[in-house]
Specification:
Blueprint: H1 11-16, H2 27-52, H3 60-68, H4 87-98, H5 102-121, H6 124-130, E1 142-145, H7 153-158, E2 170-174, E3 177-187, E4 195-204, E5 207-217, E6 223-227, E7 240-250, E8 254-255, H8 261-297, E9 299-300, E10 303-304, H9 309-337, H10 345-369, H11 380-389, H12 397-408
Parallel strand pairs: 1-4, 2-4
Antiparallel strand pairs: 2-3, 3-7, 4-5, 5-8, 6-7, 9-10
The protein binds flavin-adenine dinucleotide.
Residues 110, 143-147, 152-154, 158, 186-188, 234, 237, 239, 389, 392-393, 396, 398-399 line the site of flavin-adenine dinucleotide.
């Protein structure tokens, strides 16, 4: 197994020095992290390297092995056959995966995002029908479907509202079903997922009822999947475009009530952002580990690179940034799991910071490796590409900055756990805010 550079907040490193740790992870999370670290090194790394060399796409064996250790049911409650972890456990797993393969972190992370919608629905029927799939023998995937051709960042966050546009996904009621038509773009897991949490503009007799989320089985008649163009990073994350033509969905598949989609989506984002921040932290760590090894190997003027002051300074700066990013995402995950006030602020701060340092650390790693950085076999190129990848999903730097600023200034419009300001059209149930995972995150 490749050695991982010891880190200040690594519980085992602290324990081995006898230092009592304020940051001890709960034992169940520590156990999961160790399992995932081994899985990442033994199974994920070879698959990621093969894919990066163009010798394969997403490897089904990775999905199977991830399923074996529970990565497809991390936040699924135990009563539905899951591991019952919260966002803390999920985020720790995401760092481990992304330190080796950010694509795979995205695949397992998008699955969690879709499951979170079902958990937040508080609807036992949806939960027992759609969460239990992940305990089946065969691995199953889900996806979360928001992005449209014209509804990107601005509509979702910067204006504080979802815009309901003409060419977006539209749903209409038809007896005890809804009928969905339109197009969605850039859906992680879209190629393989068995069901999706799909956001559509629900239109009634007198106009738009509001954004509404539906659970849609993707084998339903009228659903078409198509490949997305090749991108610079996050390659095989099973991304697809999804088209919907007269797709019939039972009325019971509405998540959290008609017109409550905006609020549900904001809650999902708050839940998942600590994990996406952990992905960026993992990418930074992966790049750092390559530079860390190289600095011991490379001798200049008779000394290893890290013995030269400027080389040491670079490594120390990189390591410090990763430590800070990790503490921020752990704190944000703890806030989310324990429903502390304004949980939107902590996750947004964690993601903004981690996204930024991933790029900075990847850049520094390039400079540490010098000309070797340009040799594909050193493996750094992938991390440099992936460092930019998480900038686009679950909040761009601009949208995160706006959300943070809104929380800092009274009179702004921060997302919170309060109901949305806009009136909703029905008295159907709202999203249920429930504690995820074990009741105690432990050790904090
Ligand atoms: C690898 C990958 C996986 C993805 N997975 C999913 C998925 O599973 N499900 C899904 O629904 N979507 C997914 N997406 C799509 C992603 O969520 C969108 O790309 C994201 O919401 C940004 O939208 P956009 O690309 O249309 O960018 P735009 O909205 O066009 O934004 C482009 C840039 O302009 C900035 N900007 C926009 N408006 C303003 C403004 N008013 N002021 C200042 N700056 C502004 C933005 O911050 C951004 O930097 C994925 C994307 C990628 C790359």
């Amino acid at each position: 197994m490749t050695s991982v550079a010891p880190t200040l907040s690594d519980y085992r490193a602290l324990r081995s020095t006898g230092t009592p740790s304020f940051f001890a992870l709960p034992p169940a999370v520590e156990l999961l992290r160790d399992r995932v670290r081994e899985f990442a090194e033994t199974q994920l790394r070879p698959a990621a390297e093969r894919a990066d060399d163009g010798r394969g796409g997403f490897d089904q064996r990775v999905l199977d092995a991830g399923h074996d250790i529970g990565l497809l049911r991390m936040i699924v409650p135990e009563e539905y056959g899951g591991l019952g972890h919260g966002i803390l456990g999920t985020a720790v797993v995401m760092e481990e995966l992304a330190a080796v393969c950010a694509n795979s972190a995205l695949v397992f992370g998008a699955n969690v995002l879709a499951q979170a919608a079902v958990l937040l629905s508080g609807n036992p029927l949806l939960q027992s029908r759609y969460l239990t799939t992940f305990a089946d023998e065969e691995p199953a995937l889900a996806c979360n479907v928001v992005t449209e051709e014209t509804t990107g960042t601005t509509e979702v966050v910067l204006q504080g509202r979802f815009a309901l546009v003409d060419d977006g996904l539209v749903a209409r009621r038809d007896g005890d079903h809804y009928i969905i038509n339109g197009h969605k773009r850039h859906v992680t897991n879209g190629r393989l997922a068995s069901w999706a949490c799909v956001y559509a503009n629900l239109v009634g007799r007198s106009g738009s009822v509001g954004l509404t989320a539906f659970i849609v089985p993707l084998d339903a008649e009228g659903v078409t999947r198509s490949d997305t163009p090749d991108g610079p990073g996050h390659g095989p994350c099973l991304e697809a475009h999804l088209d919907f033509t007269e797709v019939r969905v039972p009325a019971e598949n509405v998540v959290a009530g008609e017109g409550n989609g905006e609020h549900l989506s904001a809650l999902q984002s708050n839940l998942i952002r600590a994990s996406v921040a952990a992905i960026s932290t993992g990418v930074a760590r992966g790049a750092f580990e390559i530079a860390h090894r190289w600095s011991a190997h490379r001798r200049l003027g008779g000394l290893p690179l890290f013995r030269h002051q400027s080389g040491a300074r670079k490594l120390a700066e990189m390591s410090s940034k990763i430590e800070a990013a990790r503490l921020l995402y752990l704190q944000a995950a703890h806030q989310v799991d324990n429903l502390l006030p304004t949980p939107s602020y902590g996750p947004a701060v964690a993601k903004l910071f981690a996204d930024r340092i991933a790029i900075e650390v990847a850049e520094e790693a390039m400079s540490v490796l010098g000309s070797r950085a340009y040799a594909r076999e050193c493996g750094l190129e992938r991390y440099v590409r992936d460092a930019f990848g998480t900038l686009t999903h679950e909040g761009t730097p601009e949208t995160l900055a706006q959300e943070i600023a809104d929380a800092l200034y009274p009179g702004g419009r921060p997302y919170s756990l309060d109901p949305p300001a806009v009136p909703v059209a029905t008295d159907a149930p709202r999203p249920v805010v429930r504690r995820l995972g074990p009741s105690e995150s432990g050790g904090w």
